Amino acid sequence: MNLRRVNEFPWAASLFSVGAAGWLVAFVLEEGSKLRAPTLLLAATATLLAQAVAAIRIRGALGSLLLLLAVYWAIGYVARPSLLLWLKPSPRINDSLADRRISWDYFAAVSEILERAVPGFLLLLAVALSLRRFAHSNNAGSRGSLIRADHGLVLMGLGWLIRAYTGLDGAPSQSATLSSTAVVTLTLLPTVAAGLIFIGVDHLSRSTITVVVVSEAAWALIAATKAPILAIIVFGVVRLFMRGGRVPLRMVGVYTALALCAFFAVQRIKTELGILTRTDVVESYYPTVVQFFYPILARFDALQANVDAVGAGPYSYLSLGEVITHLLQAMLPQQILGEKGQLAGAAWGSILRPQAGGPAQAGANLAEGPIAEGWVLAGWAGTVLEILFLAFAIILVARLFQGRTVFAVAFAVSMTVQPLLFERGMLGIAEGMGKSLQLAAIGSLVLMLLGASAHGHTLSSKMASHRKSSPKPPYKNPLRTPPNGGHQDSGIS
Asked: What CA–CA distance (Å, rounded) separates 155 from 163?
């Protein structure tokens, strides 16, 4: 890591040093020491704080992605372990926080998990700060608007027609003839349009913002999914960071409050529809403050995936050949390959979690995360590989957010429509890249056609206006005889 670049972030560098020192201290402590878990928890907190501080200093798209990643990881790797060490909850039915596999000794389990996680945090931050110049475009500030807001709204309307085709529940209706994966992917098109409006339109009116937010909030309630809400938050944060200047705290507070209200509303709907199991009885065993944040702590389950990884052990998931095959297949549309098999998150719930002593979750697409996935693939080497891949993906997406073409920005937006960079491992991110290429191609094609149509209409209107405003030349009758009888004057008198 370049020392000159570290000195540009003094507070982040200090916190980074605290995180590294804390991990080294915990590493030399005895295996059964009760100090290892708090020390590693302090190291994780310091490292993620360093990432957040550096992200705010960096600004731009890269800063926004690093900040959001720090928030995601802080919930899974700091908040949940702190809760387990503080309360030591007993496992109960339908309790997503207390895991029976580690309830015998939360201190030992948290130590084992964070011992593998903290080096990953340190490595990601070091690589991101060292290579951040590759995520910055010198022409980003002068790009202007890439699309027109009304064209983005038209694209959103077309996406809503596809959602209506699926039966307004995110799954293909009985009349659907496309493959289910393709249809579900296309239901993300309105969210991609929302991202293009937020990122690609220079000056946004309040009415446009209201239409976009209400549209995605409505879809979140109809389909009982939190993904559109999280996507709108991501788009808003990226836009604020890319535009530079001082971030208004009042706006951040309002957006945070609205996001929490929408989050809890979707959670309530999913519970009433039977998609989620009621946890009222389970929550009653926790303090009041924990009951309020219980849905959020249960939603971000990175710690549970790491419990799976520790229980299964290294080299227990896929072989090198299977990983390469999955990565290559993930980049191609399902219509070309036919049936691809299980998605990475679904395979984690149905194959790996039972190996680790957990309940099989065949219908769920779990957030495995890079640290957990890397550990079960190849131990420490797998974790390093996953972190490097994640750093590359973040830098690529940050650079494309500042791109000068609609396709580039549409791809970056599609990568953040779902929290791929914040929750998934290398296999899940590769699957997301394949879907993002399809969404970006469709979205940019539609916008190109709309732009060409608007340009043609404007050009024809200008030509018609020019014909009306131009003076007509005097009419000359070709049969009229000239005054000299048609004879040319020779000029000789």
From this structure: 13
Model confidence over 199-226: pLDDT tens digits?
Answer: 999 888 889 988 998 899 888 888 878 8
* More confident site: 266 or 463: 266
Lookup: tokens for 45: 């907190």
pLDDT at position 6, please? Answer: 47
Cα(296)–Cα(338) distance, integer angstroms: 37
**Average pLDDT of the segment spanning 243-258:** 66
Closest residue by Cα to residue 196 from 487, 435, 34, 439? 439
Mean pLDDT, the chain, whole residue set:
82
- Tokens, residue 372: 């957990």
Question: CB–CB of 26/57 below 8 Å?
Answer: no
Q: How many CB atoms lie within 10 A of CB 365?
A: 18
DSSP state letter for 445: H
> Which residue is listed with tokens 């593998």?
116
What is the DSSP annotation of 220-275? Answer: HHHHT-SHHHHHHHHHHHHHHHHH-SPPPHHHHHHHHHHHHHHHHHHHHHHHHTTS
Is pLDDT at 367 greater than 60 in this prediction? Answer: yes
Tokens of 484: 């000299």
Q: Structure pTM?
A: 0.85
Residue 364: count of CB within 10 angstroms of its CB: 13
Closest CA to 76 of 46, 113, 106, 108: 113
Q: How distant is the alpha carbon of residue 164 from its chain centre?
A: 24
Report the 10 Å Cβ neighbour count for 33.
Answer: 14
Contacts of 65 (CB under 8 A, 6+ apart): 55, 238, 394, 397, 398, 416, 421
By C-alpha distance, which of 49, 35, 105 is closest to 77? 49
Amino acid identity of residue 341, one-letter, is G
85 against 165, higher pLDDT: 85
Backbone angles phi, psi at 198, to 5 degrees: -65, -40
| Average pLDDT, integer, range 321-346 | 75
Closest CA to 362 of 375, 347, 374, 384: 347
Per-residue pLDDT, averaged over 446-461, amounts to 67
Half-sphere exposure of 194 (CA within 13 A, CB side): 29
- 169 Cβ neighbours under 8 A, 6+ residues apart: 222, 223
Q: How many residues does the chain have?
A: 493
Q: Is 117 exposed, middle or buried (0-12, 13-18, 19+ CB in 10 A)?
A: buried
Contact 223, 401 (CB under 8 A): no
Given a cut of 80, is residue 343 above it in pLDDT? no
Q: Smallest Cα–Cα separation from 121: which of 345, 327, 371?
A: 371
